[in-house]
Every structure is written in structure tokens, then in C-alpha cells.
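User: Hey, my collaborator sent me this sequence without any context and asked if I could get a structure. I don't really work with proteins. Can you help?
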Amino acid sequence: MSFTSLFSKSLPTFIAACAFSFSSLASAGADTETDSNDVILAGHDAVAYFTENKPVLGSAEYTATYNDAIYRFSSAKNRDLFSANPTKYAPQYGGFCAYGTTFGKKFEIDGKAFEVVDGKLFVNKNVSVYEAWKKDVPTHISQANKEWPAIENVESSEL
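Assistant: No problem. I've predicted the 3D structure and written it out in C-alpha cell form, which is a compact way to encode the shape of the chain:
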């Protein structure tokens, strides 16, 4: 077999391998709290926080991608609502803990502690952290809004 023949047969495999390698590098950035599969909100349905006022686990069957994060939904209807207006449903501070953001920190969340305030979704690390956050929501949102620009693009491990 000649080099040219070997090269022409190997080239498609090489290109596919390179494409796969580079696609795995395209993941959610430092500004978004996702798991190792780039799923945000610990897999909870972003729309359900607004429509059902409770955390509802989404399904891998109904997904949408926004800001390099994968959102899961409990229904096609919720996925479609999100896709039509993702900024309406996406969590503040990239889905990091709202209370932690007030201290210039980025903490993972469990998806169960949340509040919708003035049409915006705020999530917290867990229910006990949420209890501290809700004692003065307006002040905590103001503090987090001041801190977020400085930490948004910094890896959580560097804070």
C-alpha cells in the first residue's frame, strides 16, 4: 500500500478524531455552574421554577443549550418556552449560589433552593444557605450584583 493510499484512507479518521477532541474542549466556562457533563441547575427544569414554583428534575430527553450549558426540562413544552426566551429563565450569576456571590465566591448548587424575584431566578447552594440568603433578599441581590462582574470569568477554584 502506498503512502498516498494509506493517507487518503486515514485522513477521514484523523479529521474525525481532531473534531471530537476540539468539541470536548467546548464546554461551559467559568461563568456558568455546571456538572462534568455541562448540565446546569443540577439537572432541574429552569422553566418549572417559574411555572410550578418548585424544583422539578428535567430529563435528558428534553434539552436546550444556552451559554454553553445544557438545560434539562421535564417536558417539550418547557424546553420550547425556554428556547423562545432563555434570558427570561436562565439563573442569575450563571447558576452559582446567589448567597455565595455576595461574598465574591462561586459555590455549586443542589437545584432545590431557589427563589424567583422580580422575574429572575436565584439559586442557592442548599436549603440551609437559602434560609440565610432570604433574611435580606434585596441587600443580598445588591451585594451579589456588585461582586459578580469581578468574579464572573474567574474559575471558582481561584476565588
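In plain terms: The chain has seven helices and four strands. You can pass these C-alpha cells on to your collaborator as they are.
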